Request: fold
Amino acid sequence: MRLWVWLGIWWGCVLGAQAAPTLFTYRAAESPQDVRNQYDLALLRLALDKTREQYGDYRLQASPPMNTIRAEQELEKGSFPNFIIKQSYNPEYERRGMRRGQYEVDLGIVGYRVCYTRASLLPALAQHHSLADWQGYLYGQGSGWMDVPILQHNGFRVLAVAQYRNLFPMVAKGRFDLFCRGINEIRDEWPEASAQPGLVLEPGMMFYYDLPRFFYAHPRDAEGLARVDAGLQQAATDGSLMALWRHYYLPSIRFVKPQQRQLFRLDNPMVAGMVWAPDQLLFDPLREQFLLRQTGEAWPAEPEEEVTVPEGP
Reply:
C-alpha cells in the first residue's frame, strides 16, 4: 500500500512539473506614456499561443523599466528567464554570443523614417530637394539606437540622447534640428509629441534605410527563442501576423501620408551579408502591399480588417 502511495506522489510531481508554464520575460516600457513596445508584446504572445500545443503553456512577466542600452546589458548578462527583446539588427550582438531569431518582426517598415522638427524651421526645410540639403542639419537619436551609426555612415551629424522622452522637448527647443522616427511609430507618439510647444512633423520628406528588427535572447534561452521563431513562422503562414501588424501599424502609416513625400534612400552597410528567412515578408508603404523580400513578389492579398484612420497632423 505504501508503495502505491509513493508512486502516486511521484507521478503527481511528474505531471505537475510537465504542466508548469514556461516563464518568458518581455521588456517593460521606459515610462507609463511609452507605448512603443505594445506590438512587440502582442506579437510575442501570438507566437507563444501558436506553439502552446507543441511546447506547453507559458507565463509572461515584465522586466523593470529600461532604455535600449540597459536592455542590451541585461540580455547579455542573462538577468531574466527567457528575456526576449526586439532590437535593430547589429552583428555585434551575435559576436558577443547573443541569439537572434530568424524572422524580421517589423516587416521592414521601421526603415521608413519621417522627422519631427520645430515649426520655425519649416520654411527653410520646404526649400530642400536633395540629400545634400538634408545632410546639413543636426539629428537627434536615442543612445544605443542603430540609427546613429547608419546616419553617420551616410554623412549626417547625430546627437545621441539617453532618454527617449527627452528627444521631443529637445527638438522642439532647437537643441538639434530633426528627430526621425519610423512611420509605424508616429501615430502612437503624436498625442505626447504634439503637446510640445512648437513641435511639428515635417510634411514633405522621408528617408529609407534597411533597419531590420529581430527578437534576441541570451544563449541560455535558445530553446525559448526557437519556440518564438516557430510561432512567428506559423503566424506568417496563416496570416495572423499580418493582421496583427496591420492593427498596430497601418493607421500610423496612413497618418504620415508616405505617398506624398520625397523619398531619399540611405545605405546600411551592416546588413550586407545577412541571410534572410526564405519566406520573409516586408511591407511597401507606397503601394500598401506585403511583398516577399527575396523576390519582390506580392504576397496574396487577404481581406483587410477594419482600421480606423486618424486625421494627419
